[in-house]
Amino acid sequence: MNRFDFYSRFFSNEHSSYENGSIELLRDCFHFAVENACAKESLEKGLVVISNEDGCVIFAYDFEINSFAHGYEGRVISDGIYENADIHVESKNLSLDHDRYVVYMITGKNEHGSIDVLLENISNMIEGCANISKKHSSYGDMVLRALDNVNDAISYCDKNGYVRYANKACFEILETNREELFGHNLVELTSGKPMLLEVLKNKKSIIDVDYFVKYNDKKFHFINSGYPVYSDEGDVIGAIDIFRSIERSRKLANDIAGYRAFFTFDNIIGKSKKIVELIDHAKLFAKSNETVLVLGESGTGKELVAQAIHNYSDRKEGPFIALNCANFPNELIDSELFGYEEGAFTGAKKGGKQGKFELASGGTLFLDEIGEMQIHLQAKLLRVLETMCIARIGGNNQVKIDVRIIAATNRSLEKLVEEGTFRRDLYYRLKVLCLETPSLRERGEDVIFLAEYFMRKIADKSGKGLMIITDSAKKALLEYNWPGNVRELENLISRAVFICKGDELTEKILFKAGIKGSRYDEIIKKDSIKINREILVEIMSEMNGNKKRVAETIGISRPTLYKMLKKYNID
């Protein structure tokens, strides 16, 4: 009689079901417990059976072959098993995850040895293993819940490319659900060659690459990374995909880089007619998406106006990116604006780089000193304004962008057009809406208004407290021509507050701070030796002997300063 026939005598022919929520956990724990317990005992024959509390067999393990024994599952243990003289039976009840089971140890009458100890070991191992598994399951659930709160999409596929997991963000970004993803192969799901298949094939990570994919007849643009997953033996068993939409990537990049507009119309200080008109027109233009051209001398606040327009518009939550066209060599500004693909040129970053047009999508791109832009770039800019599409250097993909352009210059574009250095068609395309920031000399009493504003701000910051500007100093401020406009005024007041020892900004303090003009040339000439020596001594003391700063404050060259110091015998 073979082993199966021998043991089958003790099971009835009726079958029953054993549905329960712990079946997979039970199988794993049972297998682990029996194999480990048997390794410690000398028992060579016997059958270990686990059943539900109704006696329905769930698993059976044969010691002689050291393997699960099939053919017993679902059969019910016979009542006569305990009465048979050919066998010895021990049993033990156990609970697992709120379900109750019975473990039977069935051996021949001469083989039972220490089966009671063996049964105890098996039962204890099953319960211990189950507790550990439940604990790990709890940790696993916690990890999965955490992944569902991650903004990046995360998915996992097995070594054959079948999707086995995806988090909540993955479903949301792809506009899909669990049933449409799980169990499907990547080749079936997407067009083209899935990136994760390359990760599986080469067993190497791919990090932060631009990835275009078509899924469910929709096109998506991601920043994508893929990582191989290894077993304890070092074999690749799957791959993890982490991706985010290009829009979110841009937002993160802009946040990190500080691509934000900080100034609003409240930061434009002044009450003059020209400044009030400027603000009124700028607010109207902010409600449009048309290109704005801001004209004005250096230091009149063209970028401040551009930021205020952005923050007053529907794009205020988007990025504000400024690029000074005069600050980049011709060979670099192209890649700064349009970006480039990996390998586009020697020194190109791995994975390529987004240009300012892409980074500014959804917001505003401020092109300062547009008059300095080279003619070949002017043609490309015109095409962008007409199509709202760009192609990176070295790439063929046309990327759709949503950008509002604000350009600024202190030069006469009309004159540049006549000279042939600026495209006429681009000039008219930029000048759809035009603003002109007035010079400070055109703003009358705004000079005093601004000077007092800067004085209060700087005095508060430096802890100097309340200060006033004397009438003679106000007169001097109004008489000065201000070639550097508001920027020059702010710098002058900063120096004046710094060197002022009292609570009054006087005409003399302004002179020491560096205000220039015919009025002060006359002061110097009036009593050259006395005034210049007194002023030099004071300024040298205030500047701690720093001759460079002294020369800048007075408005003379350092060689001239050295001659004056020698002439007046000042160390």
Automatic annotation (TrEMBL):
This is Signal-transduction and transcriptional-control protein Stc. It holds the Pfam family HTH_8. The keyword Amino-acid biosynthesis does not apply. It comes from the Bacteria. CDD domains: AAA, PAS. Residues 268-498 form the Sigma-54 factor interaction domain. InterPro entries: AAA+_ATPase, AAA_lid_NorR, Homeodomain-like_sf, HTH_Fis, P-loop_NTPase, PAS, PAS-like_dom_sf, PAS_4. The lineage of its organism: Bacteria, Bacillati, Bacillota, Clostridia, Peptostreptococcales. Gene3D superfamilies: 1.10.8.60, Homeodomain-like (1.10.10.60), P-loop containing nucleotide triphosphate hydrolases (3.40.50.300), PAS domain (3.30.450.20). GO terms for molecular function: ATP binding; sequence-specific DNA binding. It comes from Peptoclostridium litorale DSM 5388. One of its GO terms (biological process) is regulation of DNA-templated transcription.
